Amino acid sequence: MACGKSQIRTPVVWHLNSSSVLPWHKVTSDGTLVLLYVDHSAQGNYSCHDDRGLLLHSVKLRLGHPPGLLSISCQVPNHTHVRCSWVESVKTFLPAKYSASFRGNGKEWRPCVVDVIRKHCDVDHPFFWTTIHTLRVTETNALGSETTSVRIRLNELLKPDPPESLLVETLEGYPKRLVVSWNIPSSWPLHDAFPLMFQIRYRPQGSIYWSEVYSEHSPVVIFDALAGHLHQFQIRVRDEVNSESQWSDWTPVFLIRPWEVSSTPESTEDRFADYFFPFNTKPETSTAKSHNSVHPEDEGNLGLVILLVLFSVVILTTVLSLIFVLWVRQRRRNHVTKQELTSMVKMKSMPI
């Protein structure tokens, strides 16, 4: 760095950020400062002074690199908009400016509107059905410039945004049915001209297997939900006409349990009593307490006792019936044997 107004053999003193401490350096006879080894800590404001301390010259040092090629990617959320973004392959450490242009095959170049901070550019209403498009982006800094060009196919990059407002609702009275509804992506304005295909997937929570349903319209009724289980739902979308387009990302998981009969827990005794005695045996609720009222647990125990008594009577009746049948059969056998013996005695007593 030259000291602007210094004369040959005039001694000068260099400062960095108002300090006399400098990186490894030397000063030539004409007052030029030569830094022998630098890194980013050497950046700052350098100034040279004469032997009386008078400021002769100042310069700001900033270290960096010339631009390199960019890594460019493009997103096509619908048929009327293209957004391309880029990442530097070389970290220049210097402020840069960007310019971008876009054209379809055989068409004229048109500007791609640049957002320098976010490092992307936008094109509205491209010639979508042109087979190949070209984008070129130029990066410029104090040390030079570099232009990067990419060729893209919009029909293959078409990827809608995910559907919005996914909602899954129960259907009263149907423990295996769920109603799925959603809205088309707000970034897809031409939904009438370019219809969409939606893919719904769902599964009971904890399962590794998804069930899938395809539909062009909302809502959709699911008929095979697993009753009583929590389910996971997701949906995605793609352009129905363009078979080369991509599916959108899946929406966040929506959790829901199918409709269930609301019931209060009851004891085992109560369930047995209700099964055998379906009529209501419980006393009506009253604001005044009665000394003769039966506690619900006592009613359950009473029902169980009656059940056991009936069961014992049935068993006893069955056993007595079997004994009676066996007794009758044995008596008939004895009677037949007695008749045979009588016949044999009569035959022996007859004269030959």
Automatic annotation (TrEMBL):
It comes from the Eukaryota. One of its GO terms (molecular function) is cytokine receptor activity. One of its GO terms (cellular component) is membrane. Keywords: Disulfide bond, Glycoprotein, Immunoglobulin domain, Membrane, Receptor, Signal, Transmembrane, Transmembrane helix. Residues 1-48 form the Ig-like domain. Residues 162-259 form the Fibronectin type-III domain. Coiled coil: none annotated. InterPro entries: FN3_dom (IPR003961), FN3_sf (IPR036116), Hematopoietin_rcpt_L_F3_CS (IPR003530), Ig-like_dom (IPR007110), Ig-like_fold (IPR013783), IL-12 (IPR050676). The chain crosses the membrane at residues 302-328. This is Interleukin-11 receptor subunit alpha isoform X2. It comes from Cottoperca gobio (Frogmouth).
